[in-house]
Predict the 3D structure of the following.
Amino acid sequence: MPDGATAATPIPRGPAARSSGQNTPRRAPAPANGAARPATTEPVADIDKMRFRTILGRFATGVVAITAIDPETGLPTGLAANSFTSVSLDPPLVSFCVAHTSSTWPRLRDADRHCVNILSAPQREVCLQLATKGVDKFAGLEWTESPGGSPVIHGALAWLECSVEAEYVAGDHVIVVAQVHHLDKHHDGDPLVFYKGAYGRFEG
Ligand SMILES: Cc1cc2nc3c(=O)[nH]c(=O)nc-3n(C[C@H](O)[C@H](O)[C@H](O)COP(=O)(O)O)c2cc1C
């Protein structure tokens, strides 16, 4: 995070924001409790990026597909993420982090609603396809619509239909907080697990 960058600022949404390059880092106002943190003068720790990835890779996660209908093309699109977590029960909020370099996130955030699909173990190829830049993310994928019209991918364990509540710039990513409007389980099965840069299964 840049020096002095602390919390959140609402990031403008919509095609105008997209075309004017608004998916870029932004400074934030004081937190809601009014307690602005002092700007730090500490140098950023010089941690090797590969080491950071390797150590953090020891934290096993699930994988989700974040999907929406691109309002510009009317076509389904999405990306894979393992930074998903639940945040709040009341109101129901979840979060995930998206790199500033994502070309798909601006399309997802322009949609009124998006779907978080919790991927199952057999969906490794789905994950890889959604993680590939510049391809038809939904080529060969079967999907149905959530109540608000977002893509629910066939074979996902569960889905949550969400809208973007807030975005917080955090270093080279944006932390997205999303409100959950609808959710349901989908297929039964084992989760897709991501651990040490590889995919595995849950054996409980
Ligand atoms: C297992 C896995 C987890 C990922 N998690 C994230 C994530 O949490 N945040 C993110 O921005 N990208 C993540 N990615 C990368 C994106 O899925 C995707 O590669 C990236 O958004 C580039 O595609 P785009 O330009 O179409 O957005 C992950 C990829 C994989 C394979």
About this structure: The CA atoms of residues 158 and 186 lie 5 Å apart. Confidence is low (pLDDT under 50) at residues 1-9, 19-30.
